[in-house]
């Protein structure tokens, strides 16, 4: 109970601090600051703000959870999350900033002179934003359930309400200040506990090594309550006490094999018992430390994850807009370099949590809820008030992770939905748009609560990589792109990702097709590029006029003065921009 109070205090503190800093900073902010910085922002501060908004629940909780379950294969996720900014720095941010476009719809209209394509890209922005919000709400429900005892559904609704209040109250007008603050909160909340717990591990004389060819074992008598139906894979014989096992209660002896366990069942394991794991997890520690144990399906999944994360970052709706705060293309590129360093520093520490959690919270392998590893590890290693304080710090960091990302996304989506690009010339009130921005992801999060957070985020990255990445890369570096090619490419890539997501609900996660349906970027991204290119070649007569002048503006050095430095609010829309 005391540990829960510490964690509740940490969560409450981060919420109050975020709203307080936002309201204090908004005293000098204008209404237009919802969309763009009022004046250019220093590169270091802008990089901290971008990192704060980008480091979502998948980074703070999901990476460690995947490492606990999948081992070293999961390290490709943080590599891809960080490397996405390398692709941004090399190919996109400087030309995008020189174009004067603030959002992806702005860019496609300026580059291809098509209002219909602008509307289509706006719809895709909304879809990507909703897909990216779902894992944030999943993390919120799981966090409040783990540290406070809320029901998963109640946690989602509480956080959705907090996010909605932070958006409509005006606390995010000073968005750069708020997001930069939350980056440093998250970095502190992951580094201090990681260092402290690593020291405890080194001086504790832990009996079990992570490279032994045996399964993890329970270090003390442990009761595990299964919240959802699971199938356990038993590698070593184990005695346990079950509240209900195959219609019988009491002591049960399980031979190696697979056993279904229904939701609501409580399993009690004695100290020293081998840990059964949910199917899909790596059972023994030696295999857990070796990469690519699944053969061809594992290799395909790895490449698909890398393609989605490396190319999907540039298509996230809340990423590109932040670079408009830089005064020049070279400044935007330096900001991306700083972000790459900040993300690299952060991603060192979820790995430590994943390694230690394999030893100290092995019960998560039984339930499959490994995303809670970061939250539960401090109290598992240190049962004293010190563990409670560290747990409160990690809970505050987790809350900051999904609060910052969710608030930024809801604000971005509400701005899009309240424009005239989605509802065919009609506008929606900002507050009503904010409600819609939250409501749809809440429904989706309640429906898919069994998915891993990092895997859910991977779907949003796959959608972004399969829709906006081909348009950005070809639009910036190839004169021959046409509006028809861009539209066909976005529709092809986006439709295939959605079909794969739906099909994966009916096809198991095993085998080649199961892996590709769960993470389809390996197929959808090349197809989207191919369709975009081929349709553009077939419609080469419809290449917009003035493309050479625009390409010069995108690629000319900043010192020649072609960059458009006017704030978005001061740019004059072209005649007929919202006519249908």
TrEMBL record:
Pfam families: SSF (PF00474). Keywords: Cell membrane, Membrane, Symport, Transmembrane, Transmembrane helix, Transport. The keyword Metal-binding does not apply. InterPro entries: Na/Glc_symporter_sf, Na/solute_symporter, Sodium:Solute_Symporter. The chain crosses the membrane at residues 6-26, 47-68, 74-94, 115-134, 154-172, 184-203, 303-325, 337-361, 385-418, 430-447, 453-477, 484-504, 516-535. It comes from the Bacteria. It is a multi-pass membrane protein. It is found in: Cell membrane. Its main location: membrane. The keyword Transmembrane applies. Belongs to the sodium:solute symporter (SSF) (TC 2.A.21) family. This is Cation acetate symporter. It comes from Saccharopolyspora ipomoeae.
């Amino acid at each position: 109970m005391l540990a829960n109070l510490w964690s509740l205090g940490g969560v409450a503190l981060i919420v109050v601090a975020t709203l307080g800093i936002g309201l204090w900073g908004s005293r000098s902010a204008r209404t237009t600051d919802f969309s763009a910085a009022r004046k250019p922002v220093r590169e270091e501060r802008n990089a901290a703000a971008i990192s704060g908004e980008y480091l979502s629940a998948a980074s703070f909780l999901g990476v460690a959870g995947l490492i606990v379950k999948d081992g070293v294969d999961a390290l490709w996720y943080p590599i891809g999350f960080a490397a996405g900014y390398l692709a941004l720095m090399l190919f996109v941010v400087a030309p995008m900033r020189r174009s004067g476009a603030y959002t992806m719809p702005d860019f496609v209209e300026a580059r291809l002179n098509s209002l219909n394509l602008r509307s289509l890209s706006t719809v895709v922005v909304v879809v990507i934003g909703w897909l990216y919000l779902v894992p944030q709400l999943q993390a919120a429900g799981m966090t409040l359930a783990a540290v406070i005892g809320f029901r998963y559904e109640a946690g989602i609704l509480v956080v959705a309400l907090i996010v909605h209040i932070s958006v409509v109250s005006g606390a995010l007008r000073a968005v750069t200040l708020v997001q930069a603050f939350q980056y440093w909160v998250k970095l502190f909340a992951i580094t201090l506990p990681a260092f402290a717990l690593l020291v405890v591990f080194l001086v504790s004389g832990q009996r079990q090594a992570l490279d032994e060819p045996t399964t993890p074992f329970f270090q003390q008598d442990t009761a595990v309550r299964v919240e959802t139906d699971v199938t356990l894979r038993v590698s070593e014989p184990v005695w346990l006490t079950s509240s209900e096992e195959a219609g019988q209660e009491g002591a049960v002896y399980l031979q190696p094999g697979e056993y279904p366990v229904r939701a609501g069942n409580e399993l009690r394991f004695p100290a020293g018992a081998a840990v059964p794991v949910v199917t899909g997890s790596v059972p023994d520690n030696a295999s857990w430390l070796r990469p690519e144990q699944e053969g061809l399906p594992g290799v395909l999944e790895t490449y698909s994850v890398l393609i989605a994360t490396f190319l999907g970052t540039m298509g996230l709706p809340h990423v590109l807009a932040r670079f408009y705060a830089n005064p020049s293309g070279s400044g935007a590129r330096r900001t991306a370099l700083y972000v790459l360093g900040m993300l690299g520093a952060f991603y060192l520490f979820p790995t430590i949590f994943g390694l230690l959690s394999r030893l100290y919270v092995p019960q998560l392998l039984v339930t499959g809820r490994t995303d809670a590893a970061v939250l539960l590890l401090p109290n598992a290693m240190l049962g004293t008030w010190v563990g409670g304080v560290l747990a409160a710090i990690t809970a505050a960091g987790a809350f900051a992770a999904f609060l910052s990302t969710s608030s930024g996304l809801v604000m971005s989506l509400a701005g899009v939905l309240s424009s005239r690009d989605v509802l065919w010339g009609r506008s929606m009130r900002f507050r009503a748009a904010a409600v819609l921005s939250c409501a749809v992801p809440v429904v989706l999060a309640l429906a898919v609560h069994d998915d891993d957070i990092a895997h859910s985020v991977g779907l949003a990255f796959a959608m972004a990589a399969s829709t906006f990445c081909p348009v950005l890369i070809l639009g910036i570096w190839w004169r021959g792109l046409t509006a028809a090619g861009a539209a066909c490419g976005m529709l092809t890539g986006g439709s295939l990702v959605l079909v794969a997501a739906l099909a994966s609900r009916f096809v198991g996660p095993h085998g080649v097709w199961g892996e590709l349906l769960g993470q389809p970027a390996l197929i959808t991204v090349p197809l989207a590029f191919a369709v975009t290119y081929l349709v553009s070649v077939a419609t080469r007569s419809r290449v917009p006029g003035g493309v050479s002048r625009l390409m010069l503006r995108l690629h000319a050095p900043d010192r020649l003065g072609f960059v458009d430095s006017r704030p978005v609010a001061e740019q004059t829309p072209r005649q007929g921009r919202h006519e249908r």
